[in-house]
Specification:
There is one protein chain. With 145 residues, the chain is mainly α. It has one domain. It contains five helices and no strands. Helix 4 runs antiparallel to helix 5. The longest helix is centred in the C-terminal third of the chain and has 33 residues.
């Protein structure tokens, strides 16, 4: 379910998302992932909940793959694009490598449900950050016109 949802989100973006800015795509991506985590936390081991989680996470991940390439270009331009994306990738990969260990320690200490909801809360912080970037860059673009 995860893989087909990734492909579906990219297809939907190609058809309908051409007018969406990269910051808005990042907000949508993060929101889908948070919704998936909340669904998993609420549904427990119920199979339809797990399917909904995989679909939401796949949709968000598919959009994320587009946003993580286009957002730095949109925000910072092409000068130094490789350096900026390289630094972002290094941070993302390091955090991604540490995440399973951190999450397993949180599950051991606090339980699965609380760990999932804490992860969702961190995702909401990410959504707020992307939304702030989207609003700020939109104002900057309107002011430049």
């Amino acid at each position: 379910m995860f893989g087909p949802a990734q492909v579906l989100s990219r297809l939907i973006n190609m058809i309908f998302g051409t007018r969406l800015s990269p910051p808005i795509l990042a907000v949508i991506s993060a929101a889908l992932m948070v919704v998936g985590i909340v669904i998993l936390g609420v549904s427990g081991n119920w199979l339809p909940g797990a399917v909904a989680f995989a679909i939401c996470l796949g949709l968000g991940s598919g959009i994320n793959s587009i946003a993580q390439g286009s957002l730095p270009l949109y925000l910072f331009g092409s000068d130094g694009y490789g350096t900026i994306t390289g630094k972002m990738a290094a941070a993302r990969l390091a955090l991604g490598a540490a995440a399973p260990f951190t999450f397993s320690a949180a599950m051991q200490s606090f339980g699965i449900g609380l760990s999932l909801f804490a992860t969702a809360a961190l995702g909401v912080v990410g959504i707020a950050a992307f939304a702030t970037v989207a609003m700020t860059t939109r104002r900057d673009l309107v002011a430049a016109e």
